[in-house]
């Protein structure tokens, strides 16, 4: 299929009856669509398959990285899984936020901050910032998806 043919096929999807969309899905995916799939998802899935057939799909390396299968190319792109850090009691999370230093102590079953016990870093981050934050991200325990909040964070073991 050429690019002009692909363009015509993609435009034709919007005018197809649902029964025709279901048949096209079966033809392209070689199996029936999921039950109770919406029309818009049928259209998107069919469009994806048509584009994939014409323009090519994902590389094997990309598929391995997305599925997390062993043998994926390390260092060939961003790590899609947030790194997991296990904090031991006695560890300190130190974060600078808007010119103020915040020090959180990891204790059994939670955290200690300003003389109180907390079970969630996210609640502490919310108290500090006044907005909803991922506590692990705020304290630098996860890689950020986009922008990081202003300031520095560090983890130290005692």
Keywords for this structure?
five-stranded antiparallel beta sheet, 39% helix, 158 residues
User: What is the tally of beta strands?
Assistant: 5
Q: Encode the helix/strand succession as letters.
A: HHHHEEEEHHE
* Percent in strands: 15-25%
Compute the separation of the termini in Å. 63 Å
Q: What is the count of helical runs?
A: 6
Described by strand count, sense and barrel closure, the largest sheet is: 5 strands, antiparallel
- Helix/strand-derived category reads alpha+beta
Mean pLDDT: 83
Radius of gyration: 24 Å
Unreliable runs, pLDDT <50, ≥5 residues? 72-77
Q: Which strands sit side by side, in order, in the main sheet?
A: 4-3-2-1-5
- Morphology call: elongated
Plain-language structure description:
The chain is of the alpha+beta class and 158 residues long. 39% of the residues lie in helices and 16% in strands. It is built from six helices and five strands; from the N terminus they run ααααββββααβ. Strand 1 and strand 2 (100-107) form a beta hairpin. It is elongated. Residues 72-77 have low confidence and may be disordered.
